[in-house]
Design goal:
Elements: H1 2-10, H2 18-24, H3 27-39, H4 48-61, E1 64-70, E2 82-84, H5 101-105, E3 106-110, E4 126-131, E5 138-142, E6 145-156, H6 165-185, E7 194-208, H7 209-212, H8 216-221, H9 246-261, E8 266-271, E9 277-282, E10 285-286, H10 287-307, E11 310-313, E12 327-335, H11 352-367, H12 369-375, H13 379-382, E13 397-398, H14 400-413, E14 424-425, E15 435-436, E16 448-450, E17 455-457, H15 467-488, H16 494-509, H17 521-530, H18 538-541, H19 548-556, H20 562-616, H21 623-654, H22 659-687, H23 698-703
Parallel strand pairs: 1-6, 13-16
Antiparallel strand pairs: 1-2, 3-4, 4-6, 5-6, 7-9, 7-10, 7-11, 7-12, 8-9, 12-17, 14-15, 16-17
Length: 705
């Protein structure tokens, strides 16, 4: 019981949350700020100084010396610039600790030094950070000391979004407006706001830090560029949900406590399928908080790992041959008075509002499958999608037997008269109770699966921000809601109109529904027959951002301008080419300076042994040694040829000026060349003496944690 009390006291300890604000702010100021947070109204500038003063006093009492505007540029990670609370010393020489409303609301950063895709030139440096008061400020405690972190949006001098948060907040406004229109159609006048609720599951690997520091590929790229599979992988399924080892448990314990202090509801933890792989999942919260919290989770995982002599790998595919890591984005729509718009109830065939919401979501995903696929694109995900429990690159929707049956009834007969119900699961053991059986199974191969009262978008990569996916989900569904509301608000007979609209939407977009095995080859053919896009890599996905369809969508709902979309496409092309270039250079460096010299030492030792045997015992059979020497020499020659080819191709790609063309060349030429260099090296690792191999093996990394 004392542990529960301690956790309760610990939770939110470092957050300037509602209870702290209620205690420290005047009632009138607290009321105005709370209204801004809950209703999405504009912040009253007159209260900023009062809030800033209270926030500063609270932070200083907790040991803070600095504050920072904490924001999320298009780098995939967070950014911050620290300023102390020290102001100009007084006449008595003593320092004054100040923090004004202006400093709270607005900061300035060098906008030209972050990825902008051409929105900012080098000489156009000014950018602004703006306080997002819907995400509470928090204190971060680490070796630097205690820092007050203020979540902010980041935009250019001209107002263009240069970050992940600004478009997310815009998309949340869009879905709120259109979802309320749907609710009003069904007579709901009580709900005042609809908020996307998100729960991201974070997968990650942990490896021993000393071994990590001996792997230059992990240091430079976050993944192993070389590596032969060990004798044992994940084939026994014994790591998944297995007993957590004490070293890992100690790490998880500290991670939980650090996150609880930050108000992050870390709830579920377990071993994942691959050896050395784990998962952490929080409780659902509103989308912009979920995005912030996920960034805190990733930062905390990496920080705490170092304290335990570990390194946390967030790359989507740090090890070839075992499961990669994803970030399942669980998404639903919840009103301010607690109504989940995706709750089908016990009899979904009778729940017309739910059926309309579902039909609109299917339409949104079908029409904008390319955008949804693009939202989960990053370089690491190219190595993950399509296998090892990652969803395929083809977007489809899993609904389960019950909802698919309701859709079939509506499309085939025009009426849905019943809903399949779950049964009772009998275990066959007298001492075990009978269990209520869910009405449908789950499908782990589906990229977009309905799971009781939410959709689980399983494509997002483990290192990626969840902001992009939620921006797209919010906006495409807002569009579908708007188009439905435009029709139904004009209807003379609402009941007939909504029935006909639901049937029409299901009929036109049921092609996106697939409950089968997403890994099967037959699904590839079936998806092609249905006309579903199969976008297999990041560079093929990026063009979806700048189609006329995408521009119209995002400009209609004021989420992105055409210029902002073009800039994001440019940023992604540049990021792809730069990452592949770094990987290629790391490979050539490791191959040329570590692997090839090690193999030469091995062949020299082998040749010397053959010479010694011949001199001492000419009649001895040394055919095995000769075979090994020939095989190793052939592989070494293959590796040398592949190394030269990779150097030439990567240098040629760097000379291409156009970002898109450079990214395409990296994908079509450099990536295959990297595979050709890796192939002989991984075979050589199985041959060369372990004491000669220049860095820890997969077995060392995955099983010696």
């Amino acid at each position: 019981m004392s542990e529960l009390v301690n956790i309760a006291e610990l939770f939110g300890k470092n957050v300037f949350n509602e209870s702290v604000m209620r205690e420290r702010l005047p009632k009138s100021v607290f009321k105005k700020l709370k209204q801004t947070i809950e209703d999405g109204t504009e912040l009253d500038p007159s209260i900023a100084d009062v809030v800033a003063h209270a926030m500063k006093d609270w932070a200083i009492e907790r040991g803070a010396t600095h504050y920072t505007h904490w924001f999320q540029p298009l780098t995939g990670i967070t950014a911050e610039k620290h300023d102390s609370f020290i102001s100009v010393p007084g006449h008595d020489g003593k320092i004054i600790m100040e923090f004004s409303g202006k400093e709270l609301i607005k900061g300035e950063s060098d906008a030209s030094s972050f990825p902008s895709g051409g929105l900012r030139a080098t000489f156009e440096a000014r950018g602004y950070t703006a306080w997002d008061c819907t995400s509470p400020a928090f204190l971060r405690e680490d070796a630097i000391g205690v820092t007050l972190c203020i979540p902010t949006a980041f935009c250019s001098y001209k107002g263009e979004a240069l970050d992940q948060k600004t478009p997310l907040l815009r998309s949340m406004q869009a879905i709120d407006t259109q979802a309320l229109r749907i609710l009003r159609l069904f007579g709901n006048t009580n709900s005042k706001r609809v908020v996307p609720s998100v729960g991201p599951e974070q997968e990650y690997f942990l490896v021993d830090r000393e071994k990590y520091l001996k792997r230059k590929d992990l240091i430079y790229t976050g993944r192993t560029l070389f590596g032969a599979m060990p004798p044992k992988g994940q084939e026994l399924d014994d790591h998944y949900y297995g007993v957590i080892r004490e070293r890992i448990g100690s790490f998880m314990n500290e991670v939980n406590r650090e996150l609880w202090k930050l108000g992050v509801t870390a709830k579920t933890q377990h071993n994942e399928v691959a050896p050395a792989q784990h998962e952490l999942a929080p409780i659902y919260t509103q989308a912009n908080l979920a995005v912030d919290h996920n960034q805190m989770i990733m930062e905390t995982l990496k920080k705490v790992a170092g304290r335990h002599g570990l390194t946390c790998l967030l790359h989507e595919k740090p090890f070839a041959g075992v499961n990669g890591s994803g970030k399942h984005n669980n998404w639903s729509l919840v009103t301010d008075d607690g109504i989940n718009m995706m709750n089908p109830g016990d009899t979904p065939h009778e729940n017309v509002q739910f059926l309309l919401v579902l039909a609109c979501i299917l339409k949104a995903v079908d029409v904008h499958a390319d955008l949804l696929r693009e939202s989960a694109s990053d370089v690491g995900n190219d190595y993950r999608l399509g296998g090892n429990e990652a969803p395929p690159a083809i977007i489809s929707v899993f609904l389960g037997d019950q909802l698919e049956d309701v859709i079939d009834q509506l499309c085939n007969t025009g009426e849905a008269t019943h809903s399949k119900q779950g049964g009772t699961l009998k275990t066959g053991v007298a001492t075990l109770p009978d269990l209520d059986q869910d009405v449908t199974d789950r499908n782990r191969t589906s990229p977009f699966a309905f799971t009781n009262n939410k959709f689980e978008f399983r494509m997002v990569g483990s290192s990626d921000s969840i902001a992009s996916s939620n921006v797209v989900l919010n906006t495409i569904v807002a569009e579908a809601f708007k188009e439905a509301a435009d029709i139904l608000e004009k209807a003379e007979d609402f009941d007939m109109a909504v029935h006909d609209l639901v049937k029409t939407l299901f009929t036109e977009h049921r092609r996106i529904v697939f409950n089968g095995n997403g890994y099967s080859k037959s699904w590839l053919k079936e998806a092609e027959r249905r006309g579903l896009p199969n976008i297999t890599c990041m560079v093929e996905a990026i063009p979806a951002l700048t189609t006329d369809k995408a521009v119209k969508l995002f400009e209609t709902f004021h989420v992105f301008t055409r210029a902002e979309l073009k800039s994001r496409a440019e940023v992604e092309y540049e990021a792809y080419a730069k990452v592949i270039n770094i990987e290629a250079r790391a490979m050539t460096n490791i191959a040329g300076k570590q692997i090839i010299p090690a193999v030469i030492r091995y062949t020299t030792r082998l040749a010397d042994s053959i010479g010694k045997i011949t001199g001492v015992c000419p009649e001895a059979d040394f055919s095995v040694q000769k075979e090994l020497l020939l095989e190793t020499s052939d592989l070494l020659s293959e590796m040398k040829t592949a190394l030269a080819e990779l150097i030439d191709l990567s240098e040629n790609c760097k000379m291409i000026v156009d970002a898109k063309e450079r990214a395409l060349a990296c994908h079509s030429q450099v990536v295959p060349a990297m595979e050709r260099l890796r192939r002989p090296a991984d075979i050589l690792e199985r041959i060369v003496d372990k004491d000669l191999w220049p860095f820890p093996s997969y077995g060392d990394l995955l099983f010696e944690v």
